[in-house]
Design a protein that fits this description.
Elements (H helix, E strand, L loop, with lengths): L1 E4 L17 E4 L5 H29 L3 H7 L5 H13 L5 H7 L5 H13 L1 E6 L2 E7 L11 E7 H21 L3 H10 L6
Antiparallel strand pairs: 1-2, 3-4, 4-5
Helix pairs in contact: 1-3, 1-5, 1-6, 3-4
């Protein structure tokens, strides 16, 4: 089945559709190759968020229990902002480490992660997967809060590959690689 759906342009993302743009969608299941790459991207983002959690926990000197209760439920974007603010107050290079642990495209990757993990897959448009999200709006026009996001496979692969490749260097830059080793030992897990 095919249907024309309205969408709206918001922010600077090139993946968003204009609200007056009509989009012909093929309502077929998400292709396996897309599902595989999306899984890799979500997994890499989860690992990145864990590195940020380790970094924040070290900056705050909180126990895991207290960290989880106080900061753990924040979004990854909020955690990055908190980390930047906390790191600025130190003179041990933490602010520089956090800045260095970022790369061009990381913010866009995290925004895509949010859409892919919280949005609704609604079909394919040409060779792109379309996801629907909603942002609250004061307008009575139902279209004002509807967002359509289109992602092609090469872009998703690039984001997943880049983040996966950078996880090790990010852990080293944030000086949390030793924390990871301690956690693995505590879990009696050994890398192959």
């Amino acid at each position: 089945a095919k249907e024309i759906l309205p969408a709206r342009l918001a922010s600077q993302e090139e993946n968003l559709l204009d609200k007056d743009q009509e989009l012909e969608l093929d309502f077929k299941p998400l292709p396996d190759n897309f599902a595989n790459v999306i899984g890799r991207l979500l997994r890499a983002c989860a690992e990145y968020e864990f590195l940020i959690d380790l970094f924040l926990r070290r900056l705050t000197n909180l126990t895991w229990y207290h960290y989880s209760a106080v900061l753990g439920q924040n979004s990854i974007s909020r955690k990055r902002k908190l980390g930047a603010e906390l790191a600025k107050q130190r003179d041990d290079g933490a602010a520089q480490a956090l800045e260095t642990a970022s790369y061009k495209g990381l913010e866009q990757t995290i925004q895509a992660r949010n859409v892919l993990s919280h949005g609704k897959y609604i079909g394919m448009h040409k060779e792109k997967a379309c996801f629907y999200t909603f942002r609250p709006s004061k307008s009575d026009d139902y279209r004002s809060g509807n967002l359509g996001h289109l992602y092609d496979l090469p872009t998703l692969q690039l984001w997943a590959d880049t983040l996966e490749k950078n996880l090790g260097p990010i852990a080293e830059t944030l000086s949390v690689d030793k924390d990871l080793e301690i956690l693995l030992k505590a879990m009696k897990a050994k890398p192959k």
